Amino acid sequence: MYTLTAVTKTYRQKKRTVTALAGVDLVIPAGQMVAIQGPTGGGKSTLLQMLGALDRPTSGTVRLGDSELSAAGDHALAAARARDIGFVFQGFNLIPTLTAAENVETAFADGSTPRAERREKARAALASVGLAERADHLPSELSGGQQQRVAIARALVKEPSVLLADEPTGSLDEATRDEIMDLLEGVWRDRGLTVVIVTHDSAVARRAQRRLRIAGGELTELGPAA
Amino acid sequence: MFLTYLLRELSNRRKQTVIIAAGMALAIALVMIVTGVAAGVKNAQSTVLESVYGVGTDVTITQAAEPGADGPGQQFAFGSGDGTATDDGSTEVAQSTLSAARGTATFDSSALTTVEGVDGVSAATATLSLQASTFSGTVPDFSQGGAGGAGADGAPGDGTDAGTQAAPPTGGADGAGGSAFDVDQFSVTGLDPATNAVGPLSSASIVDGRSLTAADAGADVVVLDQTYATSADLAVGDTLAIGGTDFTVVGIVASTSSDAATASDTYVPLDTAQALSGLTDQISDVYVTASSASGVDALKSDLQAALPDATVSTQSDLASSVSGSLSTASDLIGKLGTWLSVAVLAAAFLMAILFTVSGVGRRTREFGTLKAIGWSGSRITRQIAGESLVQGLLGGVVGVAVGLLGILVVNLVAPTLSAAATTQAAGPGAGGPGSAAGGGAGQQVAQATTDVALTVPVTASIVVLAVGLAVVGGLLAGATGGWRASRLRPAEALRSVA
């Protein structure tokens, strides 16, 4: 699914150059569930951004299937995100003025999906994460766990081939964390998605098929989950 | 989704929406009122000009008076045998003159033929502006008790006793040697009686009697302005002495364009006026109607080339000759009003832009998230532009309502503006002592003074202008905010709020 070759990403920060990724080589086969761990500032989020077509490497190549993301233009990257990639964020990142169903509808990014189909799929996605009854509630009327479920529904409604989650349980208590991880694991198993989870939490990482560690921009394989 | 998202955002940020809409509304209302009042003032100027130049006159042609051309001023000379002796020994004297109006230069009537031969002239007519003056009074009998006094010629008398007081004269206006003189002046315009479509009478309506006709050429007939007829207590069928000749009043006219007086007190056939004033084949004004309204400026140039010594003026040139509070209002609207509108409009636009850009800043995570899930920069720009456009349109709707209310208030108050339209810039020194209108350099001669109630027209163009400004303001703010949002890189947007 993903093939990263000698990926380097540097930033200019206060007149000094920061290397977030230093020659990362990585292959993630389709349908694998991968957890990436590491210290803060080690390059986890930067790596996730490369995988999510949110940014381009300073050097090296990033391929998603047949698409060369590192050489793609803004429109092509936006199209790849809209078509192939679902995101789940630590802070849920829901639009506060839209209901749960409307938030899920925003995933139809090109705006070409008919309204009725959009609404039907959004409600079905919410039902699949157990929130059918909360479809018309605003995010402020939902708990943290429910908001993350809405975010997962938003990521899944367009049926992507990849699900990228950045600290998906970072804002949740342990019980809710386990519920969300059960949900993600179920989705992975049922849909055959490629799932990449960035996490500090070893309990979360242990549920993945494969564990990676990134520190100082260098990636190391930790092996399969215990 | 577009509308749902848009409406939710606007209602959620109600305070910002109200502030932007209110600012836009204020600016648009002000622009509407200023534009409307400017149109009203322009209409008022046209009204005043029409009362002077008539309806349909696009161009007028005059000739500047030569310096000192008016000579020493109006003079009346009486010989020793003039006047009529009365029973008490005093003498009644009277004299009428008819001459070119002060500050008015006359020129050869062949200019009219020249004008008619210029391309772009639809119609033309010539007039002769004259001033009729009548001096009348009673001179006492100075011959009584003249011993010891000074004679009328200034020579010493023949009295024997230098200390003897001469007997006072008798007779005169008060019977005790006093004198009383009346000087009556009124304006006379000689015009082609066969042409009423263009010229001073084209904006006049018949109140009584009839207008001049082709059959009146050479006749001693006169049409009076209603205001003058009332003040002079004249009616159709009465007789009015002009330049020593009795004219029969055949009609009374009033201006149709306002409650003002028409351009002249009296109107007589052109050839009669020329003969009576001794200005044979002379005219003072040519009134021209252009074939095409859009060709007036070109016509002016052609006429100026054909008549290099003449002063060729279009209606817009003539508008600058309108003075009085109407002129003050015009200046106020033209300068202060316009700049105030521009300043308020710029402030409203700036406020809308700043609020929108600030809103984009606060919604960085929102737009970063939307980009992360695949929204294109152009879709986000459209969303922001849509929100700003609706805010602008809300302001536009309120602004139109407030603007219409303001215009209604102005129309209910209907402030009265006085105006004097002037023509004929006279050269330095034109006009002599005793001249009512002549005088210093650049002196102009008042042709008509009138009061005009200011009425502000409400036209579709004003409403379209207001709505257009609202749309432009909204789009400007939306485009700026959208441009800012489209430049957000999703990774940086998400990183900045992490």
How would you sum up this structure in a few lines?
The complex is a heterodimer of chains A (226) and B (498). Chain A is of the alpha/beta class and 226 residues long.
Query: Which CATH class of chain A?
Result: Alpha Beta
Give the strand content of chain A: 25-35%
Return the average pLDDT of chain B rounded to an integer: 77
Range of strand content of chain B:
15-25%
Question: How many discrete domains of chain A?
Answer: 1
> Structural class of chain A, please?
alpha/beta
Largest sheet, strands/sense/barrel of chain A: 6 strands, mixed
Domains of chain B (count):
2
Overview of the molecule:
The complex is a heterodimer of chains A (226) and B (498). In chain A, 33% of the residues lie in helices and 29% in strands. Chain A is of the alpha/beta class and 226 residues long. Chain A has a single domain (2-224), classed as 3-Layer(aba) Sandwich (Rossmann fold), CATH 3.40.50. Chain A starts with a strand and ends with a strand. In chain B, the strands form four sheets. In chain B, strands 1, 2, 3, 5, 8, 9, 10, 11, 12, 13, 15 and 16 form a twelve-stranded mixed β-sheet that branches. Chain B has helices at residues 2-12, 14-53, 110-116, 226-231, 270-277, 296-306, 315-319, 325-362, 364-372, 377-413, 460-486, 490-496; strands spanning 59-62, 84-85, 91-100, 107-108, 121-139, 171-172, 176-178, 180-191, 204-209, 221-225, 239-242, 245-255, 266-269, 282-283, 285-290, 311-314, 322-323, 416-423, 445-453. In chain B, α1 (2-12) crosses α10, α8 runs parallel beside α11 (460-486) and α9 packs across α12. Chain B is built from twelve helices and 19 strands. Chains A and B meet through α2 and β6 of A and α1, α9 and α12 of B.
